[in-house]
Amino acid sequence: MYTMENLNINHQLTTFNRENSDQKHCWVCFGTDDDEFEGSRDWVSPCKCRGSTRWVHQICVQRWVDEKLKENSSIEAHCPQCNTKYIIVFKDVNYFVQLLNKIDKTSNQLCPFLAAGVVVSTLYWSAASYGAITVMQVMGEEEAISMMENTDPYLLLLMLPAIPLTLVLGKTIDWEETLLLMIQRFTSNLPFLRTIMPSFLCEPINRVNSNNPVQFNPVISPTTTLCAALLLPTTSTLVGNILFDSSSYSNFQKTLLGGLVYIAVKGVLRIYQRQHNAIKDKTRKVIDYPDSESEDGHQLNIL
Fold first, then answer.
1. How far is Cα 125 from Cα 131, in angstroms, rounded to an integer?
2. Average pLDDT value for residue range 240-254
3. Is 57 exposed, middle or buried (0-12, 13-18, 19+ CB in 10 A)?
4. DSSP 3-state assignment of 25?
5. Would you say residue 221 lies in a domain?
6. Which DSSP category does 207 fall into?
7. 162/176 Cα distance (integer angstroms)
8. b/e per residue, 134-171, with b = 16+ CB within 10 A?
9. pTM, whole model, 2 decimals?
10. How far apart are CA 157 and CA 112, in angstroms?
11. Which of 44 and 36 is assigned the larger pLDDT?
12. In angstroms, rounded to a whole number, what is the distance separating the alpha carbons of residues 68 and 117?
């Protein structure tokens, strides 16, 4: 005859056995053996997990692996809990299919190098074409064609692509800053130059202390530098034709003189702009939060 104590013990044992039974639960779809499931009901234990995360439907884990490989096909599938690498096997295919697979794999490995070669070749021939057009623009079409015909072809293959490269590298040289510092150094050593030079050229660039000058360098994007460098021959030709429109100058001389004038004028304007911006930068300070107008009635210039 069962007592109440025996009934409680049996209930606890039944609960314990039910909780520790080999009931399978899929950690992907949360299905069990008792649930209806479309397709195969094959189970697999692909990792070191135990308990409720041990089992998973074969079709569920296959779908999960496909999703992971879709995100990054170069990674290997691992258990998200214990990080065990899944052991994935395939049915062997015939030798012809293996050959096709090797060809695809080799193609995938070689294509990046082939694409890089195409890009480099495109850049090279674009630079060579730009160089040839620049030579004809600077020297004149007839003189340029005659010169290139009388030049060794291999030398042309080296010289023509070097023209845009030289222009871009030359554009990166900050000669305005160097010239401005030289002017300020001479005016400090020779005070009488202050009576000749414009006052803004004599004003030293913003300094924290005498040993650490802080210079105003405007941020110029690489695309601006590239475009300015590549347009320099065209701009020089236009300025030369406008300012030196005379039969006494050759096309090359007009382009050279036009380029020098353009660079000089632009450099002077850049020095003027940069120095004044540097002087303005010296006046920078943080103030109390202002009203719409300052106390003296003047509008404040707030960045």
1. 10
2. 85
3. buried
4. strand
5. yes
6. E
7. 24
8. bbbbbbbeeebeeebeeeeeeebeebbbebbeebbeeb
9. 0.59
10. 26
11. 44
12. 32
Tokens of 43: 């189970």
Span 102-130, pLDDT tens digits: 999 899 899 999 999 999 999 999 999 99
Instruction: Answer yes or no: are the C-beta atoms of 236 and 258 closer than 8 Å.
Output: yes
Question: Are residues 197 and 236 both part of a single domain?
Answer: yes
Alpha helix ranges (H) inside the chain: 4-19, 58-71, 95-139, 141-149, 153-171, 175-189, 199-202, 222-230, 232-243, 251-282
Contact assessment for residue 61 and residue 28, using Cβ atoms and an 8 Å cutoff: yes
How many residues are there in the chain? 303
Helix (H, G, I), strand (E, B) or coil at 224: helix
User: Looking at the structure, do residues 147 and 196 belong to the same domain, yes or no?
Assistant: no
What CA–CA distance (Å, rounded) separates 129 from 137?
12
Characterize the bridge pairing of strands 207-209 and 43-44: unpaired
Q: Which two tokens stand for residue 189?
A: 């050593």
Closest C-alpha to 187, from 210, 170, 173, 205: 205
47: buried, middle or exposed (CB in 10 Å: 19+, 13-18, 0-12)?
buried
Residue 140's domain spans which residues? 92-160
Work out how many domains the chain is built from and give that number. 3
Longest dimension (CA), the chain: 132
| CA separation for the pair 41, 35 (Å, rounded) | 10
The answer on 178 and 155 residing in a single domain is no
Task: Provide the pLDDT confidence category of residue 67 given band limits of 50, 70 and 90.
Answer: confident
